Amino acid sequence: MPSVAHVGPTVALDAAVPLALALVAVQLRRRRDRVALYAAAAAVAVAVLPPVGEWAEGSVTGHMVQHLVLVLVAAPAVALPLATAPARLRRRPVLRAPASSLSTSTGVLLLGGLHAVTVVAVHVPTVYDRALSSWMLHGAGHLLLLVTGASWLAATAHRADRADAIAPIVSLLGVATIGAVLGAFMMFAPARLYAHGTLADQQVAGALMGVAGATYAAVGVVIAARTIRQLAAPRRTRVPAAGRTAGRITLSVVTTAGLALTGLAVQREPSSAAAPVPVERGEELYRRDCAWCHGVTGEGTARGIDISGRGTSSVFYALSTGRMPIDDPDEAVRRSDSPYSDDEILAIVAHTSTFVTGPDVPDIAGIEADVSAGGTRYRLLCAACHGATGEGGAQAAGSGAPSVLHASPSETASAIVAGPGQMPSFGSSLAVDDVAAVAAYVEEIQDPVTTGIALPGVRVGEGLVAWLVLAVACLGFVAWTGRRV
What is the per-residue pLDDT across 231-245, written as a single tens digit (0 to 9) for each? Predict the structure, then answer.
């Protein structure tokens, strides 16, 4: 999760945007424009500030909701004043020539392409993950979504009033298609694309991406229907004078956003990591919580087993899974939340390494594990007891193999080499790469790849939903144009 040092400046930067919109709204004369900017300021505040902002820090779905509010609520609200700005702004010579080119069909397509590139760029996995650790990149991404979306929609709305509204239609349908492709890629990816959130979280976010695409497509269909109606019954259409202002203001806003991009390369230094718990603290915790059963040097007592030959992998597994310590030697040993922090567990393991022999905690960090090979070994060595899906299973004498669906890769690897309980140790028969592969496979079955859209009691394929939506849209388009022409 992002550090407080990152979240603080991000919130401050994001909070400045709705404040700026509200200050601009105060200066506007038209009540409609003021209300629109106030609504945009409120939408941006809802999107970037807690609780939605906090949700987005660790969830791809939350981040997608944040982006949808920016592009589907805030951007259209900002676009309205852009298209109906006061006439005195149009008289500025420095904006006249560039604005004329941006208000053309080419300008609409250019702005639509710029917005589409922005949407894709902020969802590229490397950019997305880096933005969560860089407050400048994170805030600039939000600003670009808002600026490019508002500028494009303002120019599109201005151009759509003309009889030759081909450019707005093509632009809207093009951005809708790009959004749909990106959403489908996120939904059908075989593994997580982003460091934060689960695969299921990513799939929900991909489905939400289709909401923006469907919205733009629907607007494009409406403009197409109106264009067909105008062509069937030609009449002189007056182009509002305010429409020409959209391109001029768009240029200044996009230029401001471009200047903001110059600071994207600046990366905030990460906060210093907390100091590790010293080994002396591990000795203190071991003597307080463990030695009264297992002995000062792990030799065992009448209340606990001898652990001196079980290796530090067994110690790490028992502590990290919360199976130890227990209050009563007769208490059933089962998985629970560990009372120790990760650093405290490592400190205890470091202390026990001075008197415990046997398999150490396997170092699987940095190993590029072969999940397929891990699956093969899991089915050969583990599935008979733990089940093919990792749910666990019954064994002889009323005992049972525990579920592996909550084990971390380190816990799985330690269990493989330590052989806790009735489980045999595979430390001597499996290389560390094989251990890492099995651990990676166990992590994979904890978050299996699923497709479709989950509804109450049923999972519906995305293809069926897409065809139904397309059929309804086509029927509505035919009925509308047939009735109006």
Answer: 666 554 444 444 443
